[in-house]
């Protein structure tokens, strides 16, 4: 009997994410693992087919295929990071795949191995399947050597060994031979270690324990009344983007998914931006998920120690690596959009908002009595070094929040965050009863505040503008109310929101800015900016309009509730790295801002 290949999917961001706070994997709608970097988020993508391949079709992909498959359904097990994919053919045969990364507490500590579990069972009929597991090393350039035993296969090369242990026929898997699925099968792919139990038994136990872990984690969240499913999915996704070992938080799980087709706006986001991480911490804090903040503060303390009160680069590697030299690898790119980049040149930038993001991320810890490790005066003194740098840089040119590579200005958003650093330090000092230090930082905050109001307000535009003495609008100005720089009812803030809406809004989506940059004028809306606009509208009293836009953004999520960085306003198509923490943060913030109170129903 021949083999009928499954229906072929066009590359898209209809992907589900699995992970365990050590690494992440992305699975397409037909159950193909198309992206997975090991041993950590920023490692070699041993499955890289999301960005194409220079080898044979199927290289860099782990697929469990149904003969003649024509359609599929995919969803998360509610309140977990476990993905179920059901695949059907035309003859009534169907299979179900279960994918997850083990994560649960055992022997008093978290178990989160660099391993993934794939399980397959019959749903109906007598399905015939084919397993095609083709990891590649060195960004697809190295075809590994293959060895095998009675119930495992090993891929060896480039200093890496992967082992797949299974109760399926090793011969069928190794030779990609189609076979009848006559019982449940489990596949455990990870380090070159022998399993301690039968694969089916161990993988079933791991699934049960992982599901229980995520259900307990979700149960502790302080949710808004409305939009709960969207918020839960966003919260789990943000948690999956944390590198628990160091406390770092990645901006996204991928590299080089472009902001729009044919633009070359392709970046590597698998690192920890101080700015993005602050927004993640703030969103999870709003749901009473404090563990992420505590872990991230460990990472931030090391950043401050490394920099010693001097320049802080805007991003670091998840292991605190400082040099993230940008280069290119020989892959076609997502839907043929090259180049494919590794590293990010932004580590060389001066982005002065970073000092405010550090202080803002740490500030709640000085007031929150729930934390296991309460910060003390020594921690405050370290933050003061950051504040000194913020004050020194508040009126100096930088690359800005949008990381412009060929132009430096005194960006209002950077100065705004420098103000926030001084303002929060005054409040923290007051908490410790340090009256003199509180007054000192309050005076500095007032000076920065006055400078921004004088130099960033453009009377001709009747709005704050993106740089001192500038003329252009910028969505980051919407953060003025969120960080407390101006009250929402300040006429200047309301006017700025109005001008931004008039200039940057396209339908129910918002662009970052309209002026051309290093790559020309932006072509797609930036999702976090739309969420900032939603927040600003709600704050100034236009709540129903904000709700309408928010629900438009929820409709743009993919089939399992995830968002990338950018959206095409006319079609709702997702572009940019995926899943983008900024965007998932917006889902949480919007729900918290717009939801009815629990008192309305209880």
What labels describe this entry?
alpha+beta; eight-stranded antiparallel sheet; four-stranded antiparallel sheet; globular; hydrolase
Layout of secondary structure:
Elements: E1 16-19, E2 24-27, E3 33-38, E4 44-47, E5 61-66, E6 71-76, E7 83-88, E8 94-100, E9 104-106, E10 109-111, E11 116-124, E12 128-134, E13 145-148, E14 152-157, E15 160-166, H1 170-175, E16 179-180, E17 185-190, H2 199-219, H3 228-240, E18 242-243, E19 248-249, E20 272-273, H4 274-286, H5 291-307, E21 315-316, E22 327-329, E23 340-342, H6 353-363, H7 377-393, H8 412-431, H9 435-455, E24 457-458, E25 463-464, H10 479-482, H11 491-504, E26 505-506, E27 509-510, E28 525-526, H12 527-539, H13 543-556, E29 566-567, E30 574-575, H14 581-594
Antiparallel strand pairs: 1-2, 2-3, 3-4, 5-12, 6-7, 7-8, 8-11, 9-10, 11-17, 12-16, 13-14, 14-15, 15-17, 18-19, 20-21, 22-23, 24-25, 26-27, 28-29, 29-30
Characterization of the model:
- With 602 residues, the protein is of the alpha+beta class.
- It is 33% helix and 20% strand.
- The chain contains 14 helices and 30 strands.
- Strands 6-7-8-11-17-15-14-13 form an eight-stranded antiparallel β-sheet, covered by helices on one side. Strands 1-2-3-4 form a four-stranded antiparallel β-sheet, with no helix packed on it.
- A hairpin with a 4-residue loop joins strand 24 and strand 25.
- It is globular and about 75 Å long.
């Amino acid at each position: 009997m021949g083999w009928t290949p499954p229906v072929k999917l066009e590359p898209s961001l209809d992907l589900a994410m699995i992970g365990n706070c050590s690494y992440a994997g992305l699975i397409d709608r037909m159950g193909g693992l198309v992206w997975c970097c090991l041993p950590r988020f920023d490692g070699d993508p041993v499955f890289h087919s999301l960005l194409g391949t220079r080898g044979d079709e199927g290289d860099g992909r782990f697929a469990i295929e149904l003969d003649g498959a024509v359609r599929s359904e995919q969803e998360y097990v509610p309140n977990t990071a476990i993905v179920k994919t059901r695949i059907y053919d035309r003859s009534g045969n169907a299979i179900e795949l279960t994918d997850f990364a083990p994560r649960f507490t055992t022997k008093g500590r978290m178990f989160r191995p660099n391993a993934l579990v794939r399980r397959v069972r019959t749903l109906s009929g007598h399905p015939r399947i084919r397993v095609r597991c083709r990891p590649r090393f060195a960004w697809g350039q190295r075809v590994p050597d293959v060895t095998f035993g009675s119930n495992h296969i090993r891929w060896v090369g480039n200093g890496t060994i992967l082992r797949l242990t299974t109760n399926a026929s090793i011969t069928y898997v190794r030779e990609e031979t189609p076979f009848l699925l006559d019982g449940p099968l489990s596949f455990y792919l990870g380090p070159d270690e022998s399993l301690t139990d039968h694969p089916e038994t161990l993988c079933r136990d791991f699934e049960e324990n992982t599901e229980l872990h995520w259900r307990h984690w979700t149960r502790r969240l302080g949710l808004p009344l409305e939009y709960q499913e969207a918020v839960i999915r966003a919260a789990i996704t943000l948690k999956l983007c944390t590198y628990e070992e160091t406390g770092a938080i990645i901006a996204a799980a991928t590299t080089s998914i472009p902001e729009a087709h044919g633009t070359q706006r392709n970046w590597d986001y698998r690192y920890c931006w101080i700015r993005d991480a602050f927004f993640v911490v703030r969103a999870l804090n709003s749901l009473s998920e404090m563990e992420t903040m505590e872990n991230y503060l460990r990472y931030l303390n090391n950043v401050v120690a490394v920099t010693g009160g001097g320049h802080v680069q805007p991003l670091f590697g998840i292991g605190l690596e400082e040099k993230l030299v940008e280069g290119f690898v020989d892959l076609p790119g997502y839907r043929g959009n090259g180049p494919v980049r590794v590293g990010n040149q932004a580590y060389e930038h001066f982005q002065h908002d970073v000092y405010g993001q550090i202080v803002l991320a740490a500030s709640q810890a000085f007031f929150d009595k729930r934390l296991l490790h309460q910060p003390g005066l020594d921690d405050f003194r370290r933050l003061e070094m950051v504040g000194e740098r913020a004050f020194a840089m508040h009126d100096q040119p930088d690359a800005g929040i949008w990381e412009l590579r060929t132009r430096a200005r005194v960006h209002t958003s950077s100065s705004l965050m420098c103000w926030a650093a001084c303002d929060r330090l005054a409040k923290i000092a007051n908490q410790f009863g340090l009256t003199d230090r509180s007054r000192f930082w309050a005076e500095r905050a007032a000076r920065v505040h006055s400078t921004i109001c004088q130099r960033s307000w453009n009377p001709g535009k009747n709005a704050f503008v993106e740089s001192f003495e500038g003329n252009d609008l910028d969505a980051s100005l919407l953060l003025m109310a969120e960080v407390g720089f101006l009250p929402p009812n300040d006429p200047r803030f309301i006017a700025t929101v109005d001008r931004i809406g008039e200039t940057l809004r396209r339908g129910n989506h918002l662009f970052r800015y309209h002026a051309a940059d290093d790559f020309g004028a932006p072509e797609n809306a930036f999702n976090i900016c739309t969420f900032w606009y939603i927040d600003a509208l709600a704050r100034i009293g236009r709540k129903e309009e904000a709700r309408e836009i928010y629900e438009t953004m929820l409709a743009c999520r993919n089939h399992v509730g995830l968002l990338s960085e950018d959206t095409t306003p006319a079609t709702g198509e997702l572009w940019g790295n995926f899943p983008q923490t900024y965007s998932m943060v917006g889902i949480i913030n919007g729900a918290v801002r717009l939801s009815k109170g629990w008192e309305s129903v209880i």
